[in-house]
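Case study 2.
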Amino acid sequence: MARTVSDPDPRTALATLAAARGDSLAALSAMLGRNAAYLQQYVRRGSPRVLGERDRRLLSDYLGVSEATLGALPERAAGFRIRKLDVAASAGPGALVDREIVLGTDTLDPGLARKLGLRDGQAAIIRVRGSSMEPGLFDGDHIVVDTADRTPRAKGGVYVIRIDDAVMVKRVALVRGALVATSDNPDAAAVPDGAIAVIGRVVWQMREPR
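Prediction:
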C-alpha cells in the first residue's frame, strides 16, 4: 500500500521510511547500484539535488510509496486507485462478514501496480486481524489483494479465503486436486473445516512503524 509521510521534504521522507523498515541508506544505495555514500549524501548534503528518475522509481517500488513522496513532480505522480474494504481478513479464527463495505479508495504507485500485475477494479486493500500468519503478517497490517488471482497452485501462496461465512488469510496450496489452507504460525489454532472459496492472492503488505 502506498504510504505517505507528513513531512513534504523528500529527503526527510526517505530517511524516515528507511529507518521504519530498518534499512540503512548504504544498503539502499547498494540496491540502486550506487556507492555506499550516495543516499547519505543526498539526505544530509543535498547532493544530488534531486533523485534521478530510475533511482526514485526503484526506491518508491521497494518502499511502497508514491514517487511524489520522493520528489516526483505532480504530473508524474498519478496513482493507481484501489478500493479499501471494511473487511478484516482474520489471521485467527475468521471474521464473520455478510458483505463488503467500500470505505473509499487508496493509491498505489503506478509502477508498483504494474509490477504486481494489478488490473483496474480487480484489487482491494483489507486489514489483517490476528496472529496466525506471523511472522509474515501481523495484526493490523494492511494487505493488497489481487482478486483476479483465485487459482492457488501446488507450490502455494498467501490468499484471502472464505470458509462458510468466515473470511481469513491463509497459505493455500493445491494438494492432490484439493485446496489445503494452513497457518504460518505453528501455535495457531487449526483452520476450520469447510469448502474453501478463494477471494484473491496477497501481493503486497503495509506495516505501520511500531
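The beta strands are 80-90, 95-96, 102-108, 123-129, 142-146, 157-163, 166-175, 178-182, 196-206.
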